[in-house]
Amino acid sequence: MKTLLITGASSGFGRALATEALNRGHRVVLAVRNPESVADLVAQYPGKAHPIRFDLTTPADAERAVRETVEEFGSLDVLINNAGYGLLAALEESTDEQLARNLETNFTGPFRLIRAVLPVMRAQKQGRIISLSAIAAYANHPGFAVYAGAKAALDAACDAASQEVAPLGIKFTQVIPGPFRTDFIGRSLDHGSRIPDYEGTVGKFGGFLSKMDGKQPGDPAKAASAILDLLDAEKPPFRLLIGSYAHMIFGKKLASMDAEINVWKEKGQPTDFSPGA
Ligand SMILES: NC(=O)c1ccc[n+]([C@@H]2O[C@H](COP(=O)([O-])OP(=O)(O)OC[C@H]3O[C@@H](n4cnc5c(N)ncnc54)[C@H](OP(=O)(O)O)[C@@H]3O)[C@@H](O)[C@H]2O)c1
Predict the structure, then answer these.
(1) How many helices (DSSP H) and strands (DSSP E) are in the chain?
(2) Tens digit of each residue's pLDDT (9 = 90 or more) over 181-206
(3) Is the CB of 138 under 6 A from ligand 1?
(4) Atom 24 in ligand 1: which residue has the minimum CA distance?
(5) Is 131 in the pocket of ligand 1 (CB under 6 A)?
């Protein structure tokens, strides 16, 4: 039995992960903006499901969430940085306020939570840190400039941190989904103001998203099961792609990056100092 801290447990992946973890007998701290949203889980799993009020955009919430988890259950084995949301806007269409809130939610807030949890995991000499990334961070679509940038920043930070803490028994995994049937495209998606010149790119992608809402191929319950299976893996992957769409798009991206690097290699590679210089 492990102790998990899961952010954004009110809906989508977070709720599916919390439900699956509780069904497997783990203790789960449900970190949510509105504790009423998880009252059913708390009633269903007394002594195992513990709600705390948590907002990624409130800096003090990170250390408080970790402290309250340890006070409640005596340990913190797994952090699942799940909460986040998308912003559909061309880079030029985003406002400073939208940029700041999206970065705070998808990068700075999760980063702070990882920083707060590491002293506990170092003392335990073990821990798992799992973050919800996005295929957008790797193979972007027009309209996700801010969102993809924030997710990519967290992935890069975790890549570095995973090497810093590997000798200390702490393991990272970035979960990379394509479209899954959650509230992500619906109530959670933020929108920029529209500039007509972007209708053929961002507008078109927005139309694709609207049509897909409610019909996304990914099943959050199956994803939750695959993600929680990682807890039994001695060597979990740094990246876990989930769903057929993410696998298809990531494969295409890798192939096109490889081709582009090779086409431009003769230009880019011979830029070192000459031997003996
Ligand atoms: N579904 C997809 O297709 C997809 C694809 C790629 C990546 N993802 C990622 O998956 C993660 C979970 O999203 P989802 O798909 O499950 O969407 P969701 O159903 O909309 O859930 C988002 C969760 O994040 C919480 N949240 C948002 N802002 C927050 C804040 N400032 N502080 C604390 N909690 C906050 C929401 O809380 P409230 O209930 O209070 O709003 C909600 O619990 C996100 O990181 C998202 O970027 C999803």
Answers:
(1) 10, 9
(2) 999 999 999 999 999 999 999 999 99
(3) no
(4) 83
(5) no
Give per-residue pLDDT as tens, 127-145.
Answer: 999 999 999 999 978 999 9
For ligand 1, say whether the CB of 37 is within 6 Å of any of its atoms.
Answer: yes
Whole-number Å distance, alpha carbon 30 to ligand 1 midpoint, is 13
Single out the residue of 127, 125, 95, 98 nearest to residue 114, CA to CA: 127
Which residue in the list 45, 85, 147, 198 is annotated as catalytic? 147
Would residue 147 count as lying in a domain? yes
What pLDDT shows up at residue 277?
86
CA of 82 to the centre of ligand 1 (A): 7
Residue-wise pLDDT tens digits, 207-257: 999 999 999 999 999 999 999 999 999 999 999 999 999 999 999 999 999
The reply to whether 147 belongs to the active site is yes
- CATH number, domain with residue 8: 3.40.50.720
Closest C-alpha among 46, 55, 53 to residue 28 = 46
Catalytic residue among 75, 131, 133, 245: 133
- Ligand 1 mean position, distance from CA 123 (Å): 30
Residue 84 maps to a domain = yes
> Quick check: is 151 catalytic?
yes
Asked if pLDDT for residue 79 goes beyond 90, the answer is yes
Residue 261: domain span: 3-267
Number of domains in the chain: 1
* Residue 63 binned pLDDT confidence (cut-offs 50, 70, 90): very high
Alpha helices in 131-243 (DSSP H): 145-165, 204-212, 220-229
The answer as to whether 52 is a domain residue is yes
256's enclosing H/E stretch is helix 244-263
Q: Please report whether residue 200 resides in a domain.
A: yes
